[in-house]
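Aim 2 progress update. The chain analyzed this quarter is reproduced below.
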Amino acid sequence: MKKHITILGSTGSIGRQTLEVIRDEPESFEVIALSAWKNIELLRTQITQFKPRYVVVKDEKLAKELKNKLTSKEDCQILYGDYGLTKIATIKENQLVVVAITGMTALKPAIEAIKAKKEIGLANKEIVVSAGEILIKEAKENSVEIIPIDSEHSGLFQCIQAKFYDNIEKIIITASGGPFYHLKETALDSVSVEEALNHPNWQMGNKVSIDSATLMNKGLEVIEAHWLFNIPVNKIEILVHPQSYIHALVQYDDGSMIAQLSNHDMRIPIHFALHYPKRIHNNLSRINLAKIGQLTFKKLDSKRFPSVDLCYEAIRQGGTFPVTLNAANEVAVNAFLSQGLKFKDIIKIVSTVMGRHQNKLNPSIYDIIYQDRETRKLTASICNEIKN
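Predicted structure tokens:
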């Protein structure tokens, strides 16, 4: 029997790779719905190939434009906006909702999918960082499994054994170090956008690539791991592993350490999430340890990459600090990508915004949405001051 799947963000990097896995296993999956926001040309291609019953785009104008492009053989219901996202996240036939939209737009449809008791394949950092407590509470109350797609958290998910949960001493998330870990601090003043986007091991979207270059992505992954696995923050470590074959490790109190390894291919954790709770054979590439020859590790230098300490501080403070951190970082990264800021300005701005934040503990989802919006305004203003 085929598993029915909805993909929120089907034209992004994770969405496209998810459809590659589905395309190669048509006997296992049926695509119920897709969302694409603006990229209607690629969405039309996906409609032709996967024949979803529903699709979602950003607004009514794009919905009409897409409708005019479709033929009678490409019939599907076209929805738009936040209403459309929530609608396709809660369709009765859904069994798994892959949340591959970046940013806070994914928060409401993800929560509504959980309330509708849909299994979640999660590839969105921002909503766990900003609203992890609320998200995990809803999942527990509705007995919904959240299967992480991010390679590090998929690795932790696979290494943590429930019957030995109380025996965990610590968990370790690995970091490649990004493209600049080997550079002297003074050299970071002059790096270009193109250099920052050139990750040594992975092909990722622009925002994630910049987060990898600042190492903000690792700090955000610490916050994610805290919420997803209910691990105290003082038991979560980051270890620099330049080869990026080991994605995560779990150390138990008897001295044993369990690691998850795989090639640099996001389709591997995607395949795992789509088939979970089963493991199914695939033809994706395998690691050849003899060819690799050597795996190396380094201690994280948080003085050169202070983003990590900001993330640890945000989760220790709790409340609305994490959403402030996330929103400020998104705006600052976008300002760098648009050639307006220096690379080192990104984390300086995030630190400045966090220093001005008045924390609110036990926030509601409305508090989080409000703080996200206000932080973006403040950060944009600071970015404009620096650019001018």
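The mean pLDDT is 94. DSSP finds 16 helices and twelve strands in the chain. These observations will guide the mutagenesis experiments scheduled for the next reporting period.
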